């Protein structure tokens, strides 16, 4: 069984997730937003306290609030793969050009060591994460689906009562709506969606009441 633990970090109130295979303690860190030393220590202390076996660094997409802690994670766990969809590499590589003006002068860039792609299955101990391609908020945005646990880490695609913004470079409203309909609303209603910001929701709740989808 896969357990999902959330931390809210940085000035954007971004949700950083630990995906933990309960049987083996194998763990993926998804979208680490830990920027300040205090935030980094919070993340590190939890991992050490729980004796987690960190095996992956995964980015759903590469906007600044979701990648602030990438370099920190790789410094702590230098042998783990860092995976990002190829279409979001330009998004990631642009971050150093605006990190300072956005108030993050200590940001350190880190390059992925591999790619995420639609249909890919990531083995995490006895659990599996299915990669679904869901662009619109960012060109290379993916979501990570745990079918056995009926839960999904969705980045900035779908929120409780809202959707990701599409006014950033590479964003497209129609593409995002199509991604939600094809990649999220096709999942069972009970699927829990863990978004990049704000509280968790379910596919069924958003199908019924999200004003952007009804």
Textual characterization of the structure:
It is a single chain. By secondary structure, the chain is of the alpha/beta class. It has one domain: Ribonuclease Z/Hydroxyacylglutathione hydrolase-like (Metallo-beta-lactamase, Chain A, 4-Layer Sandwich), CATH 3.60.15.10. The chain contains 6 helices and 14 strands. It has a 6-stranded mixed β-sheet with strand order 1-2-3-4-5-6, covered by helices on one side. The model has no long low-confidence stretch (mean pLDDT 98). It comes from Hymenobacter ginsengisoli. InterPro entries: MBL_Glyoxalase_II, Metallo-B-lactamas, RibonucZ/Hydroxyglut_hydro. Keywords: Hydrolase, Metal-binding, Zinc. Pfam families: Lactamase_B.
CATH architecture: 4-Layer Sandwich
**By helix and strand content, what is the structural category?**
alpha/beta
Q: What is the name of the CATH class?
A: Alpha Beta
Tally of discrete structural domains: 1
Ranges where pLDDT stays below 50 over 5 or more residues in a row are none
Relative strand content? 25-35%
Q: Could you estimate the helical fraction of the residues in percent?
A: 10-25%
Strand order of the largest sheet: 1-2-3-4-5-6
Q: Helical element count? A: 6
Mean of all residue-level pLDDT scores: 98
CATH topology: Metallo-beta-lactamase, Chain A
CATH superfamily: Ribonuclease Z/Hydroxyacylglutathione hydrolase-like
Rg result: 16 Å
User: What would you call the shape?
Assistant: globular
Number of β-strand runs: 14
Q: SSE order, as H and E?
A: EEEHEHHEHEEEEEEEHEEH
Summarize the biggest pleated sheet: 6 strands, mixed
């Amino acid at each position: 069984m896969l357990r999902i633990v959330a931390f809210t970090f940085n000035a954007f109130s971004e949700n950083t997730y630990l995906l933990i295979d309960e049987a083996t303690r194998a763990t993926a860190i998804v979208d680490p937003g830990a920027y300040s030393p205090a935030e980094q220590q919070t993340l590190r202390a939890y991992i050490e306290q729980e004796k987690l076996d960190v095996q992956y660094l995964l980015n759903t997409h590469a906007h600044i609030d979701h990648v602030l802690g990438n370099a920190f994670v790789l410094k702590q766990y230098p042998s783990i793969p860092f995976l990002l969809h190829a279409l979001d590499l330009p998004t990631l590589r642009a971050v150093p050009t605006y990190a300072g003006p956005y108030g993050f002068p200590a940001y350190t860039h880190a390059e992925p060591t591999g790619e995420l792609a639609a249909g890919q299955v990531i083995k995490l101990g006895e659990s599996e994460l299915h990669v679904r391609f869901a662009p619109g908020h960012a060109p290379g945005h993916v979501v990570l689906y745990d079918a056995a646990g009926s839960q999904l880490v969705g980045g900035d695609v779908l929120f409780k009562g809202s959707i990701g913004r599409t006014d950033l470079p590479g964003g497209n409203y129609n593409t995002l709506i199509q991604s939600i309909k094809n990649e999220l609303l096709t999942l069972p209603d009970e699927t829990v969606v863990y978004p990049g910001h704000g509280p968790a929701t379910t596919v069924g709740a958003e199908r019924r009441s999200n004003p952007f989808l009804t």
